[in-house]
Amino acid sequence: MDAGGRFIVAMSGAARLVSDDEPLYVISVAAEMAGMHPQTLRQYDRLGLVSPRRTGGGGRRYSLREVEMLREVQRLSQEDGVNLVGIKRIMELEAEVHELRTRLASMEEVAQGRDSYLPVPAFASALAVYRSRP
């Protein structure tokens, strides 16, 4: 893996960098990598726990990130005793936290950019809004 979270994959004699989000693995390979039966992956897909992308013919293709998600589902279920509905909720909340952190980072970048373009004078410590009375 390189610093950008990409993996080097050799295909057809040529090596290339791939993202850990790139769908590469058919269901049998992903199941083996996750230590599960392919039918379990199908069930998780039906339940919306881990839903891989599909090929034009409808076949599932799993990314490395999705294989890691499968392992996490298995860990939560077997080690922590969380049922599948609970696991789905945990994963939804984790996705929401990730989205909020991404949005916050974007807002912080915008705010930093505005600070450099719109300096506030030292004497401006408060902002008053004037409203006329009806």
UniProtKB/TrEMBL annotation:
Can you give the residue ranges of the HTH merR-type domain? 24-93
Which GO molecular function entries does the Swiss-Prot or TrEMBL record give? DNA binding; DNA-binding transcription factor activity
Q: Which SUPFAM superfamilies match?
A: Putative DNA-binding domain
PROSITE patterns linked to this entry? HTH_MERR_2 (PS50937)
Which Gene3D superfamilies does the entry link to?
Answer: 1.10.1660.10
Under Pfam families, the record lists:
MerR_1
Question: Keywords on this record?
Answer: DNA-binding, Stress response
- Please give the superkingdom of this protein's source: Bacteria
- For the keyword DNA-binding, the answer is yes
Q: Which PANTHER family does the UniProt record give?
A: HTH-TYPE TRANSCRIPTIONAL REGULATOR YFMP, REDOX-CYCLING DRUG-SENSING TRANSCRIPTIONAL ACTIVATOR SOXR
Q: What name does UniProt use for this protein?
A: MerR family transcriptional regulator/heat shock protein HspR
Q: Taxonomic lineage per UniProt?
A: Bacteria, Bacillati, Actinomycetota, Actinomycetes, Jiangellales
